[in-house]
Amino acid sequence: MAKQIQVVVGVIVIDGQVLIAKRATHQHQGGLWEFPGGKIESHESEITALSRELNEELGILIVESACEKMLDLEHQYPDLKVALHIYQVTQFHGDVSGKEGQPVLWVSKEDLQQYDFPQANEPILQMLLNAKSSS
Question: Is it the case that residue 13 has pLDDT exceeding 70?
Answer without folding.
Answer: yes
